[in-house]
Structures are given as structure tokens and as C-alpha cells.
Amino acid sequence: MTQTPPLNSLRAFEAAGRHLNFRAAADEMAVTQGAVAQQVRHLEAHLGIPLFERLPKGLAFTSSGRSYHGRITSAFEELRNATASLRPEPDRVLVSVTPTFAAKWLIPNLPAFSAAHPQIDLQILATEKVSSFHGDGIDVAIRQGQPPFGASLEVVRLFRQEVIAVAAPSLLAGHDVPLSPETLSMLPKLHDAHDLWPGFLKMLKLEDRGGHGLRLSQTALTMDAALSGQGVALVSSFLARRDIEADHLVQVVPETLLGEQHFYMLALRKPKRNSSAQAVIDWFTSMADASG
Asked: Do residues 265 and 281 make contact, with C-beta atoms less than 8 angstroms apart?
């Protein structure tokens, strides 16, 4: 009887064959590129034939490799279908977001999601660290950054980083809005880890004469400090929209700084995604589109 190859080697070969690239397969499997290459070498040694030609910029199937990959892909699909038939499709969806996005956008909008999808158990992991789709069981992630994020990921830009300066009405008492350049220069500034004030003041051709200002680790904290009248904060406009519409915050100058760290939705590329996760993805997309 022919001995079945190790399952890990077959998984590595199947992923590498879909991408024809060890690095992209490694991104999908949440392992190193070297680990994928090693598993494929083990499989080739087990079978006694080469499955790929190693090219300077990727891989190409050998004739045997192409035929074998088609059958392995079908076998994995049959395994997935057999497993899926044994249990109902889960309605739990785990979303990884930054704490600021959770506090200032997602949680205020959750009633709309619950009304539209009462059957979905949406679980939120609010963290600054980059979560693993495989290791942490993440279905969808919202991250602020710059592409590329990995060949194994579907990427949708939800919101641009359009930075505005905001403050509480109490801080602006006695001042006309929009503020004069001199007044903005003299007011205390609230800083977060993105450190956007130097670029914002440079755009306005201003110097900061407001003292050291409060320094906080997250944008959500600078927004809370601004709400309590402690200074002027720089925030992405979509995060401040509710507070501005409620007159809790005021945009102090009309200028907007376009940053480079936009907000993206990430999900693993899958031939067939579970309907609950797809509903969450569609909801995020529609909400972002509605926000303009």
C-alpha cells in the first residue's frame, strides 16, 4: 500500500500551487516562507519527483506537479464539504479592530448592525497588535496602514485618513470659528502616537506656541481629552463626525490634512466564505459608502 504523504506537506503544496509563490502561501498559512518551502521539499522527496520549477520570481508547475495539484485541491475541497455537512454554519464572526475605531465608530454604529443582522453574534477584539487570522481565529480585521497587506488577503479601503482639528466649545469660548492662525498657534495641542501636529502646522505655515501639550497613546484618548476641553486634537474626520453633529466638538479650521494611513478592511481570500462573515463584510462596506 502506498504511504500517504504528511498532511502539512500537502497543505503547503496546495497553497503554494494556488499562488505559485512560497511567500504568498506562507502569508495564508501564517508561517514562514522557509517553512512552506521545506514542507514542499519533503513532499517532493516523499514522492520522488519534482513538483515545481523554482524560478527567480516564483514557481512553475512541472507536468506531474500540475496534475497532482488538481487532484489534491479536489481532495481538500471534498474534506471541507464533508466537514461542513456535519455542522451548521456558525453565526459567530470575530472582528479585530483598533481601540479607537471600536470606541469612536464601530460601537456607536452597532445598533444599526444588530437591527440588520440579529442572528449574527458579532464579537469584537479591540487591540493595537496585528491579529492572526489563523492563530486568533479572526474573520475580519479593520486596520489603519498602507498596502500591501499580503497576497492572501482581500483588501477594501473603507475610510481615507482625512485629518481635521477639533476642540470642545468650552475651549473656544470667546474665539471666532474658524480660528485665526494666531489663536490656533497659541491653544494647547493634544498629541497621539500618529504625531500629526508637525505636518498639520506645516501645512498651515504655523509654529506651535501652545506649550508641550498632553501626549496620549491613542487617538480615542486625545478625542476624550478634547471633549473635556483640554486642547485641540487631530482626528480622522469620520471618527469625529458624530461628536461634531452633536455639537460636542467643533472643527476649528476648515483645512484638512490627507494622511497616508487609511483605514482598510481585511479578510482572507476564500473560494467560499461563510454567509455570516460575508454579511459583516458587506455591512462595513455599505456603511463606509454611505459615509461618503
From this structure: yes
The answer to whether residue 239 is domain-embedded is yes
Report how far residue 87's alpha carbon sits from residue 242's, in angstroms, rounded to the nearest whole number.
Answer: 41
* 195 and 238 belong to one structural domain: yes
Is residue 154 located within the same domain as residue 279?
A: yes
Tens-place pLDDT, residues 156-207? 999 999 999 999 999 999 999 999 999 999 999 999 999 999 999 999 999 9
Residues of the chain with pLDDT under 70: 1, 87-90, 292
Within-domain flag for 269: yes
* Whole-angstrom distance, CA of residue 227 vs CA of residue 266: 31
Report the alpha-carbon distance of residue 57 to residue 261 in Å, rounded. 29
Residue that has been written with the C-alpha cell 520549477 in this structure: 53
175 and 117, same domain (yes or no): no
Asked if the structure places residue 2 within a domain, the reply is no
Residue 96 lies in a domain: yes
Local structure of 105: helix, strand or coil: helix
Q: What is the pLDDT of residue 189?
A: 97
Per residue in 47-85, is it b (16+ CB within 10 Å) or e — as a string?
beeebbeeeeeebebeeebeebbeebeeeeeeeeeeeee
- pLDDT of amino acid 89: 59
Beta strands in 98-202 (DSSP E): 121-126, 140-145, 153-159, 162-167, 189-191
Q: Which residues pair with 153 in a beta bridge?
A: 268
pLDDT score recorded for residue 1: 57
β-pairing, 250-251 vs 162-167, is: antiparallel
Helix, strand, coil in percent for the chain, rounding step 5: 45, 20, 35
Report the DSSP beta bridge partners of residue 122.
93
145 with 191, same domain: the answer is no
- Cβ neighbors of 174 (< 8 A, separation 6 or more) are none
Do 53 and 70 belong together in one domain?
yes
